[in-house]
């Protein structure tokens, strides 16, 4: 089974930037209310001890930092509603998203597992509520993800960045290690580089 947890540093950075982006969207599109409620749906693992994910900790940390820095939102306080779901339960994710939307959240963060995430994204798209994720997703051919923000680097940009590093270091060979079926798609520029750049 693949590890779905982010490192604490990268998770904090991704949630911090996504919260700031969400807040700017709210500020310029509908004014600033005194209280802004944000929803977070996070997966929990089954086991003897229920661990809090790095994503959830980063989410709470980012909200608390924004509330402490009164220059960002001088007359506004962020609150959050956190819901935890089982990792492969898309029905529960849909139900929790509906519960949060009934509370008046302006955006929903997570979940990161694809089946649960797709269910929440569908609800958010239908109701025109921003859905923010920190996982990689291949770009769809249609334009149905209009209220979807993904903070994971674009696969082609990531591939070019790795290619630039290989060329800068003048490596003659490189090994590509991937852990899922989309790994080769994400590194396509690097794999095709020998035929393009000699």
From TrEMBL:
Native source species: Nothobranchius kuhntae (Beira killifish)
Location (main, coarse): membrane
Protein name: Glutamate receptor, ionotropic, kainate 3
GO cellular component assignments: membrane
Location(s) in or outside the cell: Membrane
Record Gene3D superfamilies: 3.40.50.2300
This protein's record includes keyword Hydrolase: no
Designated gene of the protein: GRIK3
PANTHER family: LEUCINE-SPECIFIC-BINDING PROTEIN (PTHR30483)
